[in-house]
Amino acid sequence: MNIIKRLLIFALALQGSAFGSLAIAQSAAEQQAQQPIPASRNFLGLGIGAFPKTPGSSDLRVMALPVLQYTFGDVGYVTGLKAGVWGFTSEDKSLRIGLYAEPRFGYNGADNPLTAGMADRSFAIDLGPSVRWTTPVGVLNFDYGFDVSGRSDGQVAQLQFIRPLVSDVGFRLNGVVGATWQNAAMNNYYWGVRASEATATRAAYTAGAGVGLSVGLSGLYAFGPTSALFYGATINRLSNAQSNSPIAERGFAPLIYLGYGWRM
Asked: Domain 2-15+24-263 maps to which CATH number in 3.30.43.10, 2.40.160.40, 3.30.360.10, 3.30.70.2970?
């Protein structure tokens, strides 16, 4: 539980005295920072994303995916592949507490020479409590997920801070920083090498718990009142437990996406 205490201390340090200056009505910038795609309204689109084929791979997989960003008032939301429901919302709507669910993609061993011959790692679902704290300087999100699909039986804690950098009507840009802790069970499932999978060039490896860091940008450029181009890039620094794995080719993982959509 020490990692949870550290994440909470980090959260408080980021916010400082923001509570003292909270207003009842949220500003447009505060509402913008609540969304992964900084749209002022609900959003539907199609995007192309590039990310590592396997954990730590230098080869990228390119996929086209539909993008839905929809808020159901104070009840719940869908943002990309993540969905959640709120059980508590403060009177000024600055604090929300609820539950979230998010998929975790696995990989095929044949996708990378370093994982060739290894068993495939399966798709999983993380589910757990979620907290969103909106302040005049940005939005803090904290999720604690459990692998309810039983793939790794692992746990993950994610702390993310989103700050609006540009809040013009036609052009919006958010900055994002985050920290993600995964326990030994989850890391070992995706990054470990079982004894039966070891070869002369790939040693058996048991991954422990660790914390990774991330930094990125997400933006939106409007074409008229409804259509818009959205884009973003994130660099994830792997934890030591992940980067030390024999299947990791480098210590960071990029995510790049670009798409076109409509504000509803």
From this structure: 2.40.160.40
Residues 146 and 101 sit within 8 Å (Cβ to Cβ): no
State the amino acid at position 66 in one-letter form: P
> Going by C-beta distance under 8 Å and a sequence separation of 6 or more, which residues neighbour residue 109?
115, 116, 117, 118, 119, 120
Q: Kindly report each contact of residues 4-8 with a partner whose C-beta sits within 8 Å and lies 24 or more positions away, as own/partner.
A: 4/144, 4/157, 7/142, 7/157, 7/159, 7/179, 7/181, 8/142
Helix spans in 92-131 (H): none
Which pLDDT value is given to residue 264?
82
Count each helix (H run) and each strand (E run) in the chain, helices first: 4, 12
CA distances from 133 to 22, 90, 125, 138, 233 (A): 11, 10, 24, 9, 24
Question: Domain coordinates of the chain in residue numbers?
Answer: 2-15+24-263
Count of beta carbons in the 10 Å neighbourhood of residue 122: 14
Query: Considering the entire predicted model, what is its pTM?
Result: 0.86
If pLDDT is split at 50, 70 and 90, which confidence band does 5 have?
Answer: very low
CB 179 within 8 A of CB 161: no
18: amino acid identity, one letter? A
Residues written for the chain: 264
**196 contacts: CB under 8 Å, gap ≥ 6:** none
User: Which SS3 state, helix, strand or coil, does residue 77 take?
Assistant: strand
Model pLDDT for residues 127-177, shown as the tens digit of each residue = 999 999 999 899 999 999 999 999 999 999 999 999 999 988 889 999 999
Of 134, 125, 131, nearest to 93 by C-alpha is 134
Determine contact, residues 176/234, Cβ cutoff 8 Å: yes
